[in-house]
Amino acid sequence: MLWKEILIRYGELTTKGRNRKDFIHQLKHNIKYIFSDIGSLTIRSERDRMHIELENEEQFEKIVERLPRVFGIQSFSPVAMCEKDLGVIQQTAQKIMDRYKDKSITFKVEVHRSDKSFPYQTYDIQKAVGGFLLKHNPNLSVDVKNPDVELRVEIRKEAAYLMSEIIYGAAGMPVGSNGRSLLLLSGGIDSPVAGYLMMKRGVRIDAIHFFSPPYTSEQSLQKVKDLANELTKFGSSIRLHVIPFTELQVLIKDTVPAEMLMTTTRRMMMKIADRVREEIGALGLVTGESLGQVASQTLESLTAINAVTNTPILRPLLSFDKLEIIDIAQQIGTYEISIKPYEDCCTIFTPANPKTRPKLERVTHFESQVDFDEYIERAVKNREVYTFPEKRIAENKFKHLL
Amino acid sequence: MIYFDNSATTKAHDEVLQTFVEVNKNYYANPASIHAFGVEVNELLDAARSQIASIFNTKPEYVLFTSGGTESNNFAIFGVAKANQHIGKHIITTEIEHASVLEAYKSLEKEGYEVDYLSVNKNGVISLDELREKLRKDTILVTMMHVNNEMGAIQPIEEAAKIIHEHSRAIFHVDAVQSFGKLNIQFNGEAGPDIISISGHKIHGLKGTGIIAFQRKLNIVPYIVGGGQEFGLRSGTVAVPQAVALAKACRIAFENLQENHGKFTKWRDDLIDYFKTFGNHIYILSSKEGAPHILSFSIRDLKGEVIINALQKRGVIVSTSSACSSKQKKTSHVVEALKVDPHFKEGVIRISFGAKNTEEEIEQFKAIFKDVMKELKGV
């Protein structure tokens, strides 16, 4: 096999100071996690880069496919390694450039000689390798300023390393490097995208979902599980807290005027979420709210809903257009799951005319007439927790038919 | 019986039939239903779609199930032409397309679209220069068959795709009905089709099954409107057993592509050499550069029907150049486009191999054909 390792360049991490070590450690952990199904990888981390050792072709392909999803990586390159012999280096360079033989391209050879005991000077190596490639590959021409391909040759102590391709990573921060937050996951298009964007900032996510059987179906719950599972491909496992919400939702419907229903329901959700957040030691709540999208997302509504807690509520989508959100949802693979048509708890008792400008005093006035707290406690206590990805091997039950 | 008419249709694989029966028996719920049974059937449909998507190198949501090659071709042509007429009304195809393409183009021509038909050389292949010249700013669609059904010519899809994408905004639709399972056909960025049509019954699947697949999200108007199934592009309750059976047929065809390609090539080359031993009595329309499973030839001054009957009496099933047009009296448009010598024009016979043919059948055929030549031509 030509490729010996994958070289990883850190993203924003490099701007960090003393806690840089923790970031690198987290990134390494996340990479190991995302490839846990293909055996344990040998990863060396250095101050500026990380190296994953490759054992076989199949492993290489899986890594190249999945690595672009791991946050905290600016870019990465497959690297070939060979003996420090000019002839061998030329042959290895040729193998790399074979990959481009079908099109005419410009290239340059960039040499770094950190092993000063190597008998040839940087310029000699450059000339020997570049000349050799030019002679054997009629499709190549040299462009030192703006080449299509930069073949990099590094002469290090232990061996020579060659690489040509730079693949862009997902950037951002390694998930887990910025604490934990609880995501309110509804099953719609927005909330998974909000979760994704927070993960990109290094936030580890737990998700909470409000489940109101028999008004909402097992399929709608399955959809949320699928969404949680889909988000795990960005380098972290996710716990999903499913709150039995029927009892409380019916109580709200029976005790609060219709136009206040939505506001109170949201406030109760927020209270429950905040209690769960406290129990799991998370520091913030994440929602998919986008300003002005629906009645509950006006500034007045947000104020009324927000009034139940002092916990920071992170709203990464606040200023996004619906189309921008859909774009991201499609890119990250949650869109197709989100558009499956099942009712969720937010849509089953929707009043005809929800207040877009609820007055906080009025809302608290109605809520004060009912003792919601014991219901909230019960809902928090009776929640079911699922962890994704699920440990069991998903067997393809339709295999014999296909 | 030696069945050499696989380009007309094929015998379904037993495994495909088993799938069809089992899905009908056990997964009969409507995949659009929201009850658990419907959800399960929908999962099965998704699995079938994903399997096909991975074969063609695209996303599952870009694979739609249709009733076959004709519908897929019609859908692509009308759907793209109508959705993009604000850009232009110029469309391009070749002279040797299948009727499901030519008739659709003619119908658009009547509606005011401007059509260019690319000519072909004696091997049935278009000229890339002509294609480049014909492409315009307002060209919105180019349709091209990968393999010609009558004589097996292969069009240079990859080069054509590059030219089309470089010189126009046109969508490149490839009719791969005759090529899938015999040649490699996949989405491949700028160097490949934007739309692929295939048919199930040409690859040992079921009649009435087909696919239209897209490389990416395209501007296309629905072919059948109604309940919004198939991502709103082809309404009507999805025929799940057919779809799953097709996924299986596609997988088998794809997995056996190399093996079949090798086998068919050997047989075709062998028969071409054999026909050459009859000297100028036989004219061979196909070439060794063409698709491996189709071999068209003609016997001097002999009508196709006579040859078919003579072979049939001895247990060999072949066809005239195209099953779809074989009942029509006039000479095929493909034969016309190839400018075949009048002595040979009316007798074009097509032999087409399938996965179930064997080496022995080729040898038997040679002996039988010899008898037929003796009887009909005295040689």
Automatic annotation (TrEMBL), chain A:
Classification via SMART domains: THUMP
Gene3D superfamilies xref list: 3.30.2130.30, HUPs
Localization terms from the record: Cytoplasm
Keywords carried by this UniProt record: ATP-binding, Cytoplasm, Nucleotide-binding, RNA-binding, Thiamine biosynthesis, Transferase, tRNA-binding
UniProt cross-references to InterPro entries, sorted A to Z: Rossmann-like_a/b/a_fold, ThiI_AANH, ThiI_fer, ThiI_N, THUMP_dom, THUMP_ThiI, tRNA_STrfase, tRNA_sulfurtransferase_ThiI
Catalytic activity: [ThiS sulfur-carrier protein]-C-terminal Gly-Gly-AMP + S-sulfanyl-L-cysteinyl-[cysteine desulfurase] + AH2 = [ThiS sulfur-carrier protein]-C-terminal-Gly-aminoethanethioate + L-cysteinyl-[cysteine desulfurase] + A + AMP + 2 H(+); [ThiI sulfur-carrier protein]-S-sulfanyl-L-cysteine + a uridine in tRNA + 2 reduced [2Fe-2S]-[ferredoxin] + ATP + H(+) = [ThiI sulfur-carrier protein]-L-cysteine + a 4-thiouridine in tRNA + 2 oxidized [2Fe-2S]-[ferredoxin] + AMP + diphosphate
Alphabetized CDD domains for the sequence: PPase_ThiI, THUMP_ThiI
Binding site for ATP: L184, L185, H209, F210, R266, G288, Q297
Ranges annotated as spanning the membrane: none
EC numbers, comma separated: 2.8.1.4
Known pathway: Cofactor biosynthesis; thiamine diphosphate biosynthesis
GO molecular function per UniProt: ATP binding; CCA tRNA nucleotidyltransferase activity; tRNA binding; tRNA-uracil-4 sulfurtransferase activity
GO biological process, one term: thiamine diphosphate biosynthetic process
Location, primary (coarse class): cytoplasm
Pfam family, one: THUMP
Domain spans labelled THUMP: 61-166
A GO cellular-component term linked to this record: cytosol
Family to which this protein belongs: Belongs to the ThiI family.
Role, per record: Catalyzes the ATP-dependent transfer of a sulfur to tRNA to produce 4-thiouridine in position 8 of tRNAs, which functions as a near-UV photosensor. Also catalyzes the transfer of sulfur to the sulfur carrier protein ThiS, forming ThiS-thiocarboxylate. This is a step in the synthesis of thiazole, in the thiamine biosynthesis pathway. The sulfur is donated as persulfide by IscS.
This protein's name: Probable tRNA sulfurtransferase
Organism: Ureibacillus thermophilus
UniProtKB/TrEMBL annotation, chain B:
Cofactors named for this entry: pyridoxal 5'-phosphate
Keywords per UniProt: Pyridoxal phosphate
Domain called Aminotransferase class V: residue spans: 2-365
Keyword Repeat in record: no
GO molecular function terms listed in the Swiss-Prot or TrEMBL record: catalytic activity
InterPro entries: Aminotrans_V_dom, Cysteine_dSase, PyrdxlP-dep_Trfase, PyrdxlP-dep_Trfase_major, PyrdxlP-dep_Trfase_small
SUPFAM superfamilies: PLP-dependent transferases (SSF53383)
Protein name: Cysteine desulfurase
Organism listed in the record: Ureibacillus thermophilus
